Amino acid sequence: MDILKPEKSLWIYHLNTGSCNGCDIEILAALTPKYDAERFGVKLVGSPRHADIVVATGPVTAVAKESVLRVIDQVPDPKAIVVVGVCGITGGVFRGGYSVAGPLDTLVPVDVYVFGCPPKPEGIMVGILKAAEVLELKRKGNYHKEVVKISEHGETI
Amino acid sequence: MPFGEIFGKLVDTLIGGPVVKPFPKEPVKVPPKWRGKPQYDSEDCTGCRQCERVCPPSAITIDDKKGDFFHYEIDYGVCIYCWYCIDACPTTALSGDDKSGLYVDTDRTKEKLNDGVPYVECPVCGSKILRPARTLVVRQFKKYTPETLVRASVCPKCRREKTPEEIEAGIEKYIEEHAVPRD
Predict the structure, then answer these.
(1) pTM of the predicted model, to two decimals?
(2) Which ipTM did the prediction report?
(3) Which of B75, B101, B118 delimits the end of a domain?
(4) For chain B, which residues lie within 8 Å of any Cβ of chain A, measuring from their own Cβ?
């Protein structure tokens, strides 16, 4: 079993688009010594201009929509977007609410979906590793959704 | 922190090794009572729609108007894994996955469950009713075979209006016509 070793360190930007903070706590748990996503070179950065991967949570509220689009525009290409939690995927329990401006993948192209409410920290790590492979494929210029080879449990097939 | 405590921690670290979980080299271990994806078994479904009623984010959608099929769909992109549906299920049609915990995909549309219950003919009058659930057939006849399934699928109207002799004759005729294997 091979584990993907990305060529460059992955700098991730954590973007909260109106989440309940459950998924945000799990993202931070994935960076703590117990799960330790920093083994793969993952580093949380404070500015979207430094980031390779955007880790987004929440259903994109109407107030947050403009800021979310502006932040994602600031991330340099090639970038990968990971959505964590069912709120970001479809809206979850907030689906159809008056203050929800649609799930994130109706606004920007999303590469990896991490299911759960909230997902396990291991799931978020696998999501980031998948995004790393997407990023490398995008750098080489031959990215399709079917090419991603990392399995559901973080191994390359 | 006193010196003895520091020394104790050092010994613990030397003997016990690092605290980092060896994921992804080892598969993920989920805690007891872990709530994963709800799984659906259409043979046990009675079509009572209690799961649809209790689901907080309306992840379960049921369509019984579309043709000769009771369509049942769970969207795992909406499901919050609360297992209310499993608690509400009067039979054992819904069960939970308590072994695996990682659901990650690059394609959202794959994470859906599409299933359903077919409609069967009443052997006496020929009207369409939902296929009886396995649990209810076993409760009535003590076994689940093609013959007991036919005997259980007599529609409520026939049960109410016809005599036991008429129903028995209708079932015997249906079994002979459709060559249902007998017990």
Answers:
(1) 0.83
(2) 0.80
(3) B118
(4) 19-21, 23-25, 27-28, 30, 56-58, 75-82, 101-108, 111
